[in-house]
Every structure is written in C-alpha cells, then in structure tokens.
Specification:
- 35% of the residues lie in helices and 15% in strands.
- The chain is α/β, with parallel strands linked by helices.
- The chain has a single domain, classed as Aldolase class I (TIM Barrel).
- It has a 6-stranded parallel β-sheet. Strands 1-2-11 form a 3-stranded antiparallel β-sheet, with no helix packed on it.
- The radius of gyration is 22 Å and the shape is globular.
- GO terms for molecular function: 4 iron, 4 sulfur cluster binding; catalytic activity; metal ion binding.
- Its cofactor is [4Fe-4S] cluster.
- Keywords: 4Fe-4S, Iron, Iron-sulfur, Metal-binding, S-adenosyl-L-methionine.
C-alpha cells in the first residue's frame, strides 16, 4: 500500500493543505535571536547552560537600607525575613566582575567611595558595576567614583507613577542621575527596569525614550519576580499576575522599547529563550513566584 504524506492525503480528499503560521511567534523568535544580554551579564555563570547551579557575580554589600520602598523589591523582603546579607564581599578571589551592590541602596553608605577604591586596588582586573536607584547621585559624588558599568533603576515615566511604585518623591533626582552618567562616555550606562504588566507596561517604551535622550547606552529589562510578602502591594497597584508570567507579554514590551534604545534582557533568561522555537516562545510561561531571595555565594574577608 502506498504511503501518503499528510499534504498528499489532504489533496486526495479534495482539501488544499495549509501550514499553520503564527506571524507574532516568528517576530518574537527573530527578536530573541537578534538581541543580546546586558553588558553587566558578561562573565555571569548563568550564561552557561551546562552549569547546573549558576550563581550571580560576586557582590560587595554596603547596607540593606534603602531610601525607596518599592512595591516589588526583593531586598525589602530579605530584610523583613532576616535574610539580607551583612555588609561585606560575597564572592571569590580573582573575580571578573563585582557588583556594588545587590541589596539596599549603596549610595546611602558613607563608605561608598572608600569601598570603591578598595575594590579597585584589591581586584585591579575586575570589572566594577554599580547598581543604584540613582536618587542620591550628584555630580560631586560621581567625580569621586570609579565604576565601569552603572545601572540606575527606573520603573515609571512620570513623577506620580514613580512615587506610587517607590513610595518616594525622587523622580527628578533619578532622571538627573541618568543625565550625569549618560554624559560620561567612559562608562557603560544602563537604565534597569522591571516589567510589571498592569502597572508600568505602558511606561516602559517612554522610559526607553527618556533614557536614550539622556545618553544612556542600554535598557536592562527584567521580568518581575513576585515575592510572597509583596503580593498584596502588587495587587493593590494593579499588577496583572497572569501576564507577569507570560514570556510573550514580556518580549512584546521589550520589542516596543527597542524602537528607542538598545534593549537587553537578563542573560540567564535570554540563553534559554534562544533555544526555543517560535511557537514555544509564543506560549511559554515562567515561574515568577518566590518566597525569599538568597545569596548563594560565601562571604570572603578582604
């Protein structure tokens, strides 16, 4: 008996076969294939899919305190649960990159300049990244600092929305910080933005346009991780929990922002997305829930 392909069989039945096509899925795949991860993610263990237990870059933690009280913040959760790391260096000898810092607001610490200089001397080959909300950065302080990458958090395009998300009236100060680092072409500058559908998805392209106008090099766009202690605050703010877990929704917003600035998404996520076919990208969901953040690196005395 002759075997027929499904197309041949359909034609024998008088039906012209059609290939199911999802144009949006193909656009998502093209976007994922073309973009890369933030400069900050270079050297990160999460880029290696063969690593069964990757950890973040080493970090120097200065303080768990912060002058913002963001509705999504993992650092706040860590403080409330007694899980925030004590000040100090968390990593290993001969690091390729160090972040200052992953918890709290580093510019609140009077030791920021001292620690910056100490890390330069102790690890002269390492890239130094500053992660800050930017609200305390002045030109005077900037002249005393020496970093290779500066990531400034901004999750709203207006003063009112920023105040709602951060519980702080610091929008103008953050914009000024973006302006300061955007003018300094000796560093890589990035605006770090969290995707919170129902809260700031319409703001993200506007943030991208604003940051680009201030000379910022990259937008580091991250999906939201929902910590249990933040659930009620996020719900009151209008978070669409269903869309927060959709990779498609996240990528669609990234594509809109890409019209204005060099948009990049977390390397440990992007390397996984690049392995997926178009229809998987279109439908896949991510686990967005977590109880508490943990530092997986040991503290090393310097």
């Amino acid at each position: 008996m002759k075997k027929y392909s499904w197309e041949e069989f359909a034609r024998l039945m008088g039906v012209e076969p059609q290939v199911l096509e999802n144009k949006e899925a193909r656009l998502l795949k093209k976007f994922v294939d073309e973009i890369t991860w933030p400069t900050h993610c270079n050297y990160c263990q999460g880029l290696d899919l063969s690593n069964p237990n990757p950890v973040h870059h080493p970090s120097y933690e200065l303080t768990p305190a912060c002058n913002h009280d963001c509705i999504f913040c993992y650092s706040n959760v860590a403080v409330k649960l007694g899980k925030a790391p004590k000040p100090g260096y968390y990593g290993w000898d001969n690091p390729k990159a160090i972040t200052v810092s992953q918890y709290g607001e580093p510019l609140l610490s009077p030791r920021i300049v001292e620690v910056n200089k100490m890390l330069r001397e102790r690890f002269p080959e390492a890239r130094l990244d500053l992660q800050t909300n930017g609200s305390l950065l002045t030109r005077e302080l900037w002249e005393k600092l020496d970093f290779d990458i500066v990531m400034i958090s901004l999750d709203a395009a207006t003063r009112e929305k920023h105040k709602m998300i951060t519980n702080a009236d610091t929008f103008d100060a953050v914009v000024n910080a973006l302006r300061i680092v955007g003018e300094d072409k000796s560093v890589v500058s990035a605006v770090r933005t969290i995707f919170m559908p129902g809260i700031n998805d319409e703001d993200i392209p506007k943030i991208a346009e604003l940051a680009a106008s201030l000379g910022i090099d990259e937008m580091f766009l991250q999906p939201l991780t929902i910590h249990e202690l933040n659930v009620e605050r996020l719900r009151k703010a209008g978070l669409d929990f269903e869309r927060a877990e959709s990779v498609r929704e996240f990528l669609k917003v990234a594509m809109e922002a890409k019209k204005y600035i060099d948009v990049r998404i977390s390397g440990c996520l992007l390397v996984q997305l690049k392995q997926m076919d178009p229809l998987t990208l279109f439908s896949v969901r991510r686990v967005a829930r977590e109880v508490a953040p943990l530092v997986k690196r040991s503290k090393l005395e310097l």
